[in-house]
């Protein structure tokens, strides 16, 4: 179970303001390309599951790292997200091949893909589809004992700004983050939708 605080920043100005406040705590910046898949008959989404390939690097065609993820049964309430998650490191070359031909999901050797085949029983003659995806620029900060991830997510229809913080004590972490935002006059709100849900809706939430 992945448990995260998720707070939305309203615009690029608030994102820049927070980045400036946290600048001395910056550990790294990730360029992430997220690509999603489903069965042609929506077998995964029908069970509230999401299969994602994430490429790390400015160009996914030359990325040297790729992570395969299966997430399911996500719940997001009052800025705290809880979701079942399974991940594995994945060969970037194979990841790019699957991106080009999603039906390779049905035959590629992988612990996680084998789980997908067993649990969701996508019909081989119908196969899998690529849903598309989006780019994310993530600043990672080591701050007050928390690992903050400040995202600039670029969809075709707009840009989302968000803070994420994985924690075993999410309510406490949320309180610490909110206090800092208020002290620095940075507006925010609790996130109400996952990035994937926003991507599928093709509209930024109000």
Tell me what you see in this structure.
This protein is an alpha+beta fold and 206 residues long. It has a single domain, classed as Hypothetical Protein Pfu-838710-001 (Beta Barrel). It is 25% helix and 44% strand. It is built from 5 helices and 9 strands. The protein has helices at residues 12-22, 92-100, 111-120, 170-183, 195-201; strands at residues 2-9, 26-39, 49-56, 65-77, 80-90, 128-143, 146-155, 158-166, 189-190. Strands 1-5-4-3-2-6-7-8 form an 8-stranded antiparallel beta barrel, surrounded by 5 helices. A hairpin with a 2-residue loop joins strand 4 (65-77) and strand 5 (80-90). The longest helix has 14 residues, at 170-183. It is globular, with a radius of gyration of 18 Å. The mean pLDDT is 97.
Oligomeric assembly? single chain
CATH topology: Hypothetical Protein Pfu-838710-001
Order of helices and strands: EHEEEEHHEEEHEH
| CATH architecture assignment name | Beta Barrel
Q: Give the % helix.
A: 10-25%
The residue-averaged pLDDT reads: 97
CATH superfamily: Hypothetical Protein Pfu-838710-001
The number of helical segments is: 5
Total number of domains: 1
Coarse morphology = globular
Structural class: alpha+beta
Quick tags:
206 residues, Hypothetical Protein Pfu-838710-001, alpha+beta, 25% helix
Helices and strands in order, then pairings?
Blueprint: E1 2-9, H1 12-22, E2 26-39, E3 49-56, E4 65-77, E5 80-90, H2 92-100, H3 111-120, E6 128-143, E7 146-155, E8 158-166, H4 170-183, E9 189-190, H5 195-201
Antiparallel strand pairs: 1-5, 1-8, 1-9, 2-3, 2-6, 3-4, 4-5, 6-7, 7-8
